[in-house]
Amino acid sequence: MYVMSFVAAVPNDQKDAYIAHCRVAAEIFKDHGALRVVELWGAMVPDGAKTSFPLAVAAKENETVVTGWQEWPNKATCDANMEKAMSDPRLADMGAMPFDGARMIYGGFDTLVDV
Predict the structure, then answer these.
(1) How far apart are CA 91 and CA 45, in angstroms?
(2) At what angle do helices 15-31 and 75-86 cross, to 10 degrees?
(3) What is the CATH number of the domain that holds 44?
(4) Residue 11: domain span
(5) pTM for this structure?
(6) Which of helix, strand or coil describes residue 29?
(7) Between the CA of residue 105 and those of 4, 13, 56, 73, what are the distances in Å?
(8) pLDDT over 90 (residue 34)
């Protein structure tokens, strides 16, 4: 399994818009080969002095840190389909993202342990 993961900060008053955005985006990624898409709203995300999720995404006082991931069968499948998913016209049809994408961090990860 290969996982694409992200962390972002979402304005609290945009939570419903974010959920709606996530539902549509999840279907798009699944249509392009993702096996599973998970989105999580921060419930216990402490501030840190040197490192933390809030620091990583420059979260503001009225924002909540979110994270999530897409599970793919392998990196080759992800690589072959990610651009297709990102250029899917349904993403553009959703309009502006309900958060500042410039402060989102993301990356791809190979599975080490899956219990």
Answers:
(1) 29
(2) 120
(3) 3.30.70.100
(4) 2-110
(5) 0.92
(6) helix
(7) 11, 21, 8, 22
(8) yes
